[in-house]
Amino acid sequence: MDHIELSLTQSLDHCIKCNICTSACPVAAVTDAFPGPKYVGPQAQRFRHEGQPVPDASVDYCSGCRVCNQVCPTGVKIAELNARARAQIVAERGLPLRNWLVARAGLVGRMSCGPHAPLLNFGLRLSPARWAVEKVIGIHRKAPLPASSTYTFRAWFRKHRAPATARRQVAFFHGCATNFYEPHVGKAAIAVLEHNGFEVLLPKQQCCGLPLISNGDFKAATSAHEANVQALVSYARQGIPIVGTSTSCTLTLKEEAPEILALHSEDVQAVAAGTYDIFEFLRSLAERGELKTDFRPIERHLPYHQPCQYRAHRLGSPAMDVLSLIPGLVLEESHAECCGIAGTYGLKKEKYQIGMDVGAKLFDMVKRSGSDLALCDSETCRWQITHATGVTSKHPIEILAEAYGLEL
Amino acid sequence: MRTIETDVLVIGGGATGTGCARDLAMRGMRTILVEKGDLTHGTTGRYHGLLHSGGRYVTKDPQSATECARENVVLRKIMPHCLEDTSGFFVTTPWDDPAYGDVFVKNCRLTGVPVQEISVQAMLRREPVLNPRISRVFEVMDGSADSFLATRSTALSAEEYGAQIWTYHHVVDLVREGDRVTGAVVEDLRNGERIGILCACVLNAAGAWAGKIASMAGVTVTVLPGKGTMVAMNHRMLNTVVNRCKLPDDGDIIVPIHTVAVIGTTDVHVPDPDVYGIEPDEIQFMLAEGDKLIPGFSQYRALRAWAGVRPLYKDRDVANDRDIPRTFKLLDHAERDGVEGMLSIVGGKWTTYRLMAEESVDALAKRLGNTRPCRTAEEPLPLPPTEHQTTFRPPVRTTGPGASVAAEVEALQHAPLYWLGKHLAEVEREQSFADLICECEMASRSRVLAAIDAGAKNLDDIRRDVRMGMGPCQGGWCIYRTTALLFERRGQDGLSQANSNDALLHFLQARWKGLVPVLWGDQLRQARLDELIYVGVLGADRLRPIAEQGGGLVTDNPAVATEYVKA
């Protein structure tokens, strides 16, 4: 067994049962169905062994938000242990159709995106349809499903004419959400990068695999990650930064897929090291004095929620840091652990209410702000915030593009 | 002094004594068993938990190997809830004589120990942490055994058949009239009351203490207490018992049992079974030996160290204690020493305890004119109230030398075999995860209360029943909870707060003893947190003046104290 793998499997030994994770866990705080990270993580792990029947089921209520990892004083990789335990359950008991479906964001997106999208979106807004979807598939009737786009981001990019002035290159990882549901986020990112003198390359790519990991389908997640690594490694080797707007996709490429799926080849490591969240990248430009600061003032006071998956990058608050350069713009941080959606978690019939309760603190804060706009880096969190508060939400890159006065 | 009459007085509440009491009671003989501590307080509760296949003794002690192989099958049938079918490997590492493998297989065949060679690749598929430089692997029917639960279950059966089991009763003296032992005077350690027991025969099953008991009747029995030190690691990095394929030696076996992996053992002669210590070099040596089987073993978290004393019976000169046969011996003191009314059963292994009881009781029955046959090999043991009435049956082994036995045992449809996930599965089924008293070992409130109601005399008794305090935090979170439950439950029976305080201090001290030898890394960090909980928050260091033994508890008595020379 190699050392990276050992450091994960042995990490349960570092648990001193202090309960800090249990008291920080946003899920355990709102439901009795989840016994908490200490219990389902290092504690239950001592009762599990490969090749033995899976003894437990409550670990499935872990949302994968990684707050536990962040607060653990001794470095137990709780979220990873939980993800693997869930995969063991899936390997033994099979993947329910609902989870199979929600784990395949790319497939669902590809089928729903296109000229027929408005009709589909209309249909999915009808309550009888949602009732049927809940009964048949198990996706909660109120859960925030994104509206599909009439065109894909990649189709737009093919027609997009880049300025000829670029001096440097970046590779853009758009993820499923930007491609099928929110091409405008990708367009804003391209505009900002090009404004700063970059030529944006668009590598072949597929779903980062995070929804597959969260739903315990490690086989499909592994092939997704291996395909992405194959497509991205040449960029990483040439020193071309791989930049993404979806914080959970970039976290998956950097860390989650390699660690949880035990993929540690040199190519995997090269891609992990060469991947950046977009604001991490822009902040490093700013630190070197290479970020353009020709901002128009935006006299606004906006609530900002840093997603749990972004905090898991352990980078501080890059979006806050960069947006603070915009004159007049004041951001109010949510200080909320999690919005509750956790990717596909809050969509599920039995977990929807848990997700809503987890996010209550954030929703309160957004509503109290009185703002008609909230900022958040992660797509599913944005959908959840808008669903729960009625307040429009945007990716911070959209505000940055606006401050640059860029046409989208 | 109150005097009671019985047919047989059994001395010793370990596996052997309890097994004897059950067999006696099942054959209809009036039986009282006395034990100075809790059941399994001696060697039975301090071993690594191996259900022997017999493999360890095929060369040096063939009789013991054959006995183990037979009893291994019997025990699987009568106490499945106490046993886990882990299977076992004998592996040839680069440090072992490669020629011994063939000798081993030949001797397994001669002694009737089922064995099957498997490839190193197959071994690594099953246990990827094992040393890839291992050259040969032999699979045997090793398993792991919960000796606390097994003894508790055996005692329960004995009681159902009418035997009286008196724990915390210390033998003050044996009564000898002329050339005959006619009974004993025992002391109830809870209150100091002395009781006379008149009996037709005394059965000395005191294990490492058998010499001390025999001397009370003026008879010399030489039992060499051989101290064996063991270290429990925080989790099971493997699921199969692993032995070095060589003649038995120190640190050559790792047993996955319950949630831990135990490496054992050393073998050091000690003059007194009540006085011994754990030396740092013993721990270092065993962890280094562990590295040969599992590279990096010494870097895993060590949870605790403890030692037990083997009851090795010496009736001839042997140079090395390991060379003393592990088989047992029944001593008839009438024939041997001219003293009637007493038998001693000495030596042996946990795995052969039932056979030892059968032979002892056969001899006793003959003497007392009882002709009823032994049925302990057929009738399964009852489940104590601390056990879940589980219905889940783990998958039955279908390969390896244990496969046919596994099928045979399964066909009996007795209680399911124990498996690693059992307690977690039960807690999940009951949804009792918010009501765990010992979180590490998943002991729920109802099981802890069952242990208290079953008559626990201190927190250590509860530990033996439900593993409370045996996990990574070594009682950091469960000692004060259990103390509170003990007080709540027994308060009306005269247990005072001062008595509860004493129970808490007693158990803290007992846990500390086993922590001291492994205080580094994660466990040191754990001990620091535990110290903050008990000293920093709860002020346990200031409890002594308001702590007092009593209320039916036994926390401090020289008769049951095991003294560690070095702490």
Strand order of the largest sheet of chain A: 2-1-3-4
What does the overall shape of chain A look like? globular
Biggest interface, residues from each chain = A-B, 30 and 36 residues
User: How many separate domains of chain B?
Assistant: 3
Number of helices of chain A: 23
- Please tell me the overall pLDDT of chain A: 95
> How would you classify the helix and strand content of chain B by structural class?
alpha+beta
What's this, in brief?
Chain A is built from 23 helices and 8 strands.
Defining key terms:
A: 408 residues; alpha/beta; Fumarate Reductase Iron-sulfur Protein, Chain B, domain 2; 4-stranded parallel β-sheet; globular; B: 567 residues; alpha+beta; FAD/NAD(P)-binding domain; D-Amino Acid Oxidase, Chain A, domain 2; 3 domains; 9-stranded mixed β-sheet; 16 helices; FAD/NAD-bd_sf (chain B); flavoprotein (chain B); BFD-like_2Fe2S-bd_dom_sf (chain B); Glycerol-3-phosphate dehydrogenase (chain B); membrane (chain B)
Describe the structure in your own words.
Chain A has 408 residues and is an alpha/beta fold. Chain A has 23 helices and 8 strands. A 4-stranded parallel beta sheet of chain A has the order 2-1-3-4, sandwiched between helices. In chain A, β7, α22 and β8 form a beta-alpha-beta unit. Chain A starts with a helix and ends with a helix. Chain B folds into 3 domains: 160 residues, FAD/NAD(P)-binding domain; 180 residues, D-Amino Acid Oxidase, subunit A, domain 2 (D-Amino Acid Oxidase, Chain A, domain 2); 125 residues, no CATH class. By secondary structure, chain B is of the alpha+beta class. In chain B, strands 5, 6, 7, 13, 14, 15, 16, 17 and 18 form a 9-stranded mixed beta sheet that branches. In chain B, strands 1, 2, 9, 10, 11, 12, 19 and 20 form an 8-stranded mixed beta sheet that branches. A 3-stranded antiparallel beta sheet of chain B has the order 3-8-4. Chain B is globular, with a radius of gyration of 23 Å. At the A-B interface, α3 of A face α11 and α16 of B. Chain B: This is Glycerol-3-phosphate dehydrogenase. Chain B: Composed of a catalytic GlpA/B dimer and of membrane bound GlpC. Chain B: It catalyses: a quinone + sn-glycerol 3-phosphate = dihydroxyacetone phosphate + a quinol.
